[in-house]
Amino acid sequence: MNPKRCAACKYLRRRCPKDCIFSPYFPPSDPDKFSCIHRIYGAGNVSKMLQQLPVQTRAEAVESLSFEARCRVQDPVYGCVGIISLLQTQIQKTQTLLAKTQAEIAVAQTKHSQHTYL
Amino acid sequence: MRGHEPRSSSSCAACKLLKRRCTPTCIFAPHFRSSDQITFAKVHKVFGASNVSKLLSEVPEEQRQETVNSLAYEADVRLKDPVYGCIGAIASLQKKMLELQHDIAVARNRLLAHNAAGGVNNNNSHLLVSPLVDDASQLAAFLDLVPYSDLMLLDGSGLDAYLFDIGQPPFV
C-alpha cells in the first residue's frame, strides 16, 4: 500500500489519488481528525461540502468541522451548541452586571454633583 | 374503522424524505414530524440520516429531542455559513463577551474613581469584581480547545443571525 496515503484514504482503506480532496487537510500523522469527522458527518458529506467550497476556504472549513465533530463526540446531546448556549447565558449575565454598574455610576455622579453644589 | 395503526400517510419527515415505510419503532418519528420536512432535510444534508440515527441511538431516549434540536441548529448554521458553521457564531459571541468585559472594567474604574473622589468607602466593590462567568472553568476549557487567535474570525457583524432565541428554555 502507498505509505503516503492521507489519513482519510487510510481510514477508508482505499487508494489515495493525486487529486484526493481530503489529502491537503488530513495528513497521515493525525488519524483521529478524520475518524472523528467521519463519525459525525460521514466521508461522503464532507467530500460534498468541500467540493462546493472555493479551494482557499477548504482548510478553514475542515478545521471548523473538526472542532464541531470533537464537540459532538464529547457531548453527544448538545455538541458545540452547548458552548454557544453557555456564551449567550454569560453575555446576558455580563450585560446585567454592566447595567448595574452603570446605574451605580449614575447614582454616584448624582451624589457627587449634589455634594459639589452644596 | 381501524385503530391508531400508522399508515404510509403518517410517515415521519425522515421516512418521507428517504422514501421508506415508517415503522412504529422508527427512531426519527418522535422528533421529525411529517409537517416539518425542512428540518430533517437540513439535518440529513449536513450529517446524513444514518449518522443521525446512530447519534440518537447512543443517547438516552429522554435526551433525544434536545439532541435533535442541537443537530438542527448546527445544520442550519452550517448551511448558512459553509466555511465556519457554528465556529463563526462562537467567535462572534466570544468577541461580544470580550467587549463586555472591557466595558465592565472601564465602568468599574469610573465607579471606583467616583467613590474615591467622594471619599466613599465602597463596600459593594466586591460586586464589581467579576467572576464575569460563573462557569469559568467550562469557558477556560473551551478556550484551551480553541486558541483565542483562531476565534477572531468575524468582525462581529451579523451576530443576531447566530443567536438562539434564549427566551426559549436554554439547551444547558
Automatic annotation (TrEMBL), chain A:
Which residues lie in coiled coils?
84-111
**What UniProt keywords are attached to this protein's entry?**
Coiled coil
Boundaries of every LOB domain copy: 4-105
Q: Which InterPro entries match?
A: LOB
Query: Which Pfam families does this UniProt record tie to the protein?
Result: LOB
- Going by the entry's taxonomy, the superkingdom of the source organism is recorded as Eukaryota
Which PROSITE patterns has this protein been placed in? Answer: LOB
* Protein family per UniProt: Belongs to the LOB domain-containing protein family.
PANTHER family recorded: LOB DOMAIN-CONTAINING PROTEIN 23-RELATED (PTHR31301:SF120), LOB DOMAIN-CONTAINING PROTEIN 4-RELATED (PTHR31301)
Q: What is this protein called?
A: LOB domain-containing protein
- Give the source species: Brassica campestris (Field mustard)
UniProtKB/TrEMBL annotation, chain B:
Q: Name one GO cellular component term.
A: nucleus
| Record family assignment | Belongs to the LOB domain-containing protein family.
Output the superkingdom of the source species: Eukaryota
**One biological process GO term for this chain?**
regulation of DNA-templated transcription
Q: Which residues form the LOB domain?
A: 10-111
GO-annotated molecular function: DNA-binding transcription activator activity
Q: Which organism is it from?
A: Brassica campestris (Field mustard)
Q: Which Pfam families match?
A: LOB
Task: Give the protein's recorded name.
Answer: LOB domain-containing protein
